[in-house]
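Re-running the complex after MR caught last week's input typo. The corrected sequence lines follow. Everything else is unchanged.
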Amino acid sequence: MNKQTLIQTQNRIKPFIHQTPVLTSQLLNEKAGCNLFFKCENFQKMGAFKMRGATNAILSLSEDERQKGVVTHSSGNFAQAVSLAAQKLGVKAYIVMPENAPQVKKDGVRTYEGEIIECESTLQAREAAANKVREEKGASFLHPSNQDEVIYGNSTAAMELLEEQPNLDVILVPIGGGGLIAGTALAAYYFSINCKVIGGEPIEADDAYRSFASGKIETNKGANTIADGLRTHLGNRNFPIIKKHVDKIIRVEEDEIINTMQLIWERMKVLVEPSSAVPFAAVLKNKEEFKNKNVGIILSGGNVDVTNLPF
Amino acid sequence: MNKQTLIQTQNRIKPFIHQTPVLTSQLLNEKAGCNLFFKCENFQKMGAFKMRGATNAILSLSEDERQKGVVTHSSGNFAQAVSLAAQKLGVKAYIVMPENAPQVKKDGVRTYEGEIIECESTLQAREAAANKVREEKGASFLHPSNQDEVIYGNSTAAMELLEEQPNLDVILVPIGGGGLIAGTALAAYYFSINCKVIGGEPIEADDAYRSFASGKIETNKGANTIADGLRTHLGNRNFPIIKKHVDKIIRVEEDEIINTMQLIWERMKVLVEPSSAVPFAAVLKNKEEFKNKNVGIILSGGNVDVTNLPF
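Corrected-run output:
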């Protein structure tokens, strides 16, 4: 891949996604001691950046492949993203979800006409169910984070941010499965002079931090974090990009995530999900490092159950 | 006053306020059956449109008056607006608040260096305390809604909205003390071809609805509504404007306010306070009336205690 790949990706998905706004807050700048630029992917269609990667992955299929549909296993934002992107493009979407997935997640998928295939709540069961759909329907499998087309689609959030703010010193994003940070790192590499990319990760699910240190993909034993989007581990497609282009990973505690989420809600008046608060929590934890810098932060999503908040 | 008055007002306050964004939502358009344009005054400085009127009122004082400070009685957004506007303009602000006002409201005022003067929780005690400050300090009294400069300052929100969306058929705003709707009605009269202005009001505090019917200012006995910004009644400066330029007032139930507030939070990912949900609740209650129209809604503020939500 090269710079042209990303430009083509951006042009390909543009008609199907929102160009989300970049918000600033004088009060938060004062609090953090730097100039913050928040890229609001919580305002993206279906409420998360995942719409970008899902759209690009489906648009990259052949006409024949599209007719057979797509399948993924996810109980999070990618399930909704694939459902909505597929609906917009007239493609059938099969979504494998554990039978104990929250009703609100199932409803989200059904809103966008995704067909839910229930399975047991283990990775093996999910993969088996997804494989069955591939074989029986000929559907193309889409991975939430470890697939090139998904990663390139994700790059477009940082590309838009850098178009608006070319002088960023650093962009911070949450790191879960690695798809957003890999895409962001490629965008910064090809479309900035010297903009670093830093990941924010919960200490409770610090597989990426440990992978970065050991040089091989580590996994989480517990992953007992409120940042439900960040419990997964890296993959063989995104980890090489992360190793090459990401500056570092900063870990934060659960109470730092919750306090930062509340701060964003109260001061910026925007809803973000816990995962989205992680990178800003990392900035607040390391103020000296970011002092007076131009700091981009991708608010990755806003899908949160407002009837069940941690504050 | 005339059109020039409003243009001068807009130019006067421009350096001190945010030009807030106008957001749209395909999903909410489909739900409501019309084209909605949400003017996000919840993103305004201190989190509400009140910043506009307060800033204009202080900027309209003479140099001598400014040196003696300003005083208001409010336990709501206007207290914070006056505090912040005064701070920005180097003017002393005295804020009369009932001693039982929530700590979060007092903290808000103190954040912006307003000096709190506590009094008993009656209108008489508030007015007496404010009068005392006027006499002792020579401070100028600013009224939250019933003062020309405040009303004209409020007009600028709808002026900005009409600049961006000149083809609006109607603008809806919440109606409490009458300052926002009067300002909006003037803006629509002078800066649109034929844009109507409609008020949304809680049935539990429907003084404006009754005033509109009777032709004289009515008050509320109970005002037991979650829309805490809308419990006050109209005044002699704004009621004539409302009578002349407002099309109608639509009343909504408490559960409609709460459901609409949750809908805005979940679908638009923006925090609005209960008062801000009232006009959209009025649209959802009267879909036929607004069908396929271009509907502007001013989301008046976003100051809400996120640890104490009605859903």
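None of the earlier attempt is carried over here. The two ends of chain A are 44 Å apart (CA to CA). Chain A is about 45% helix and 15% strand.
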